[in-house]
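Changelog-adjacent note: as of this version, every example in the card shows the full chain rather than a window. The one below runs 292 residues end to end.
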Amino acid sequence: MTTPNITTDQSALLSLKAKITWDPHEILASNWSATSSVCDWRGVTCGSRHRRVTALNISNLGLNGTIPPQMGNLSFLMSLEMSRNNFYGELPHELICLRRLRVLGLGINMLSGSIPSWVGSFRQLQHFSLENNSFTGFIPPSISNMSKLETLNLQFNSLQGAIPMEIGNLNTLKYIEMSRNQLSGSLPPEMFNISTSEIIAFQGNSLSGSLPSSICSRLRGLSRLDLSYNELSGMIPASLSKCSKLRVLQLSYNNFSGVMPEEVGNLTALEELYLSHDNLDVMRKKVFDEIF
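Full-length structure tokens:
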């Protein structure tokens, strides 16, 4: 069996070029040539030690096409950025071989199919972005195997079903954005145990149930919580006041009831508060005087 080398990488990228059906700026057409070093191609970065392709960034070029299975041969790839194009089709299974990936950015395309369970093989991944595509099906629990993940952005797709409770195992996660999908069921309490969380956003789903009573016990660094446009109910927990760095709180368009706890008045960093179209008794002057 032949050992992969820079020629393997060049062949993989030429396979990608062959799958591009529209290159409006003719960047790949004019620049990705077999007569020049792949390390000099637009968007390609090679490592200084092994002279293998370590990063590919072809974002925002207006490209149309599909992702070929040969992309899985880029065995030294650590960063793959293809966002803001018009790539379509499903993710090829061969991408499972990209075990060194730290960044996978495929947002704002036309990709479809399900998010495959083998994404859990990306154990070095830190940033995972599939937002604004047409992915369907369920969120695979295997995502919890990405133990170094910091950013998880799946917003604006058509994902359904419950939020896997295994997400609570991602103890380095800072940013979780799953707004505008078709997710249902309750919010897993485990998700609110991730002490590194800075942004949690699930706007525009069909989530139900109540908020955990100890919602902010471990979320001391949370700056934005957006649960608006869901079907959540019950009372707002007083422990929300423990999210002392919270700047944006969006709970509008749910079925919350009861009174706003006076403890919320301790959120002195709060800049934006959205509570419209709930059943809350929010006219507690003391609370709002303390915030604003």
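Structural remarks: The chain has three helices and 22 strands.
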